[in-house]
Design brief:
Blueprint (H helix, E strand, L loop, with lengths): L2 H9 L3 H23 L2 H18 L9 H34 L15 H18 L3 H11 L5 H8 L3 H27 L1
């Protein structure tokens, strides 16, 4: 089924077409969300919201961009909104904990049960995700779409409504910023 058939089927409310759309884009959408929220469970929940949004708003789809571009744009926007909401909730929660006298950090799981190489990998991933999260929003989105979803600069430019040269610049700056952040982290770790 080509893109026009999928769009027509969705607009007609065809459940088989919707199922085919989900099967085709589910993994890429989850990966996009995961690249932004860094939690598999949250990424899967957001992906469900993405497909609900697609089903609800397909009548407003203007075929001036590819269907995949529109889907990625929805996934990015929902992921960013989720991250903003989560960060706001964390901030409010930490503020409440501070005023309630609960400023001790909680440890949710024990790392002692894991092999040292797995612990190292988890720590490296955590530092990488933290570094990515500190990037300015447009750099973070462009970098995530390029590195996690392997989208071309052209596709990213369509998702983000930017020129290809702007996307190239964002990704270059993201890489430079990440190198600086990770270099300073690993330099501290080796001392």
């Amino acid at each position: 089924m080509d893109e026009k058939d999928i769009i027509k089927g969705l607009m007609d409310g065809d459940s088989l077409t919707f199922k085919e759309l989900v099967e085709k884009y589910q993994l890429p959408v989850i990966n996009t969300c995961l690249g932004i929220v860094h939690n598999r469970h949250d990424a899967e929940d957001i992906a469900q919201d993405v497909f609900v949004e697609i089903f609800r708003s397909v009548s407003g789809f203007r075929s001036d961009s590819k269907l995949s571009t529109w889907i990625y744009r929805i996934a990015v926007n929902k992921s960013i909104n989720f991250t903003r909401k989560r960060n706001r909730q964390k901030w409010l929660s930490s503020l409440e904990d501070f005023f309630d006298g609960k400023n001790e950090p909680e440890i949710h799981s024990s790392l002692s049960d894991l092999p040292s190489s797995e612990i190292e990998n988890q720590q490296m991933n955590q530092h990488l995700h933290k570094a990515i999260d500190t990037l300015p929003e447009n750099q973070r989105i462009a970098f995530t779409l390029n590195k996690y979803d392997e989208l071309s600069y052209k596709d990213i430019s369509e998702v983000m409504n930017l020129t290809v040269s702007s996307v190239e610049s964002l990704i270059h700056r993201a890489k430079t910023n990440l190198q600086k952040k990770l270099w300073s982290f690993y330099k501290k770790e080796s001392i």
